[in-house]
TrEMBL record:
Record site feature (Could be important to modulate the pK values of the two catalytic cysteine residues), residues: 154, 203
HAMAP family: DAP_epimerase (MF_00197)
Originating organism: Thermithiobacillus plumbiphilus
Transmembrane segments: none
Protein name according to UniProt: Diaminopimelate epimerase
Reactions accelerated catalytically: (2S,6S)-2,6-diaminopimelate = meso-2,6-diaminopimelate
The encoding gene: dapF
Pfam family name, one: DAP_epimerase
Length: 299
């Protein structure tokens, strides 16, 4: 599935037993040796009586993370299309708490992403105290960032134009900056108008993606705190547009956008592992491993 080109392998962990190691996730996410995706999403049962499902998120590097905005919209589409629920408002448990996904009549999904977290220790970010802007030393330069958690950590920088922004060079440096002990997602924001920004994102554990829902929320929060933006903002990402709404501190951030299913298939972890280890190029095995197959998920 994808949300504006931020792509996912979504797995039903309700009707089948799913056990994936970090190596399995990396192989599944590999664009040449696996299926290829930015994140793997797992649908599970929740123990929380307020939630209908548990939504687990794994970056392409195999690490489990707290939140994913584009994935949340795909998660809603998936559980509806697979007949796992008929609800229009779906409460789901994530590592960072409960979020509610609203499937709209027009097929778009609107998500209450919760209130942003601004206290540095909770992002987590090493800073002397909470501030609107923080200096950050990268290589021999001092840059200015906003830092926010949307359940997962984000740094946002203002740039003159996203086309020339140093996403590929600064992104990985900021992602692993010592002041972000759990690493960070990095957004390069260009203000077009009070109700419109352009954004490119270097994602923790995935590299530059075509869109990042949580970073779009974080960018609007930072832009609002810096008095640059209105409360409703169109965020243009390389993969398309999101609508983000934030009324101010303490209020939830709302994200609206599309979610698309591309194909369904079967992935046999044992065969995939074996093939990857031996470099087996037998075309029949390739199909068995799901690397080239187009099959329906068995009932
Ligand atoms: N693509 C996602 C964010 C996925 C997780 C992120 N890379 C992290 O490590 O926190 C989105 O749309 O929000």
């Amino acid at each position: 599935m994808h949300g504006l080109g931020n792509d996912f392998v979504v797995i039903d962990g309700l009707r089948q037993q799913v056990r994936l190691s970090a190596d399995d996730i990396r192989l599944l996410a590999d664009r040449r040796f696996g299926v290829g995706c930015d994140q793997v999403l797992l649908v599970e049962a929740s123990q929380d009586p307020r939630a209908d499902f548990r939504y687990r998120i794994f970056n392409a590097d195999g690490g489990e993370v707290q939140q994913c905005g584009n994935g949340a919209r795909c998660f809603a589409r998936f559980v509806r299309d697979q007949g796992l629920t008929r609800k229009d408002a779906i409460p789901v448990e994530t590592l960072s708490g409960l979020i509610t996904l609203h499937v709209q009549q027009d097929g778009q999904v609107r998500v209450d992403m919760g209130a942003p977290i601004l206290e540095p220790a909770r992002i987590p970010f090493r800073a002397a105290g909470q501030a609107l802007r923080y200096p950050l030393k990268i290589a021999d330069q001092l840059i200015e960032i906003g830092a926010v958690s949307m359940g997962n950590p984000h740094a946002v920088l203002l740039v003159e134009g996203v086309a020339q922004a140093p996403v590929q060079s600064w992104g990985p440096i900021i992602e692993r900056h010592a002041d972000f002990p759990e690493r960070v997602n990095v957004g390069f924001m260009e203000r077009v108008a009070p109700d419109h920004i352009r954004l490119r994102v270097w994602e923790r554990g995935a590299g530059e993606t075509l869109a990042c829902g949580t970073n779009a929320c974080a960018a609007v929060v930072v832009g609002r705190l810096w008095s640059l933006l209105a409360s409703k903002v169109r965020v243009s990402l390389p993969g398309g547009d999101l609508l983000i709404r934030w009324e101010g501190p303490g209020q939830p951030v709302w994200m609206t956008g599309p979610a698309v299913t591309v194909f369904e298939g079967t992935w046999r972890t044992d065969t995939a592992r074996r093939m990857h280890a031996t470099g087996n190029a037998d075309p029949d095995s390739r199909i068995a491993a799901g690397a080239a197959g187009r099959t329906r998920i068995p009932e």
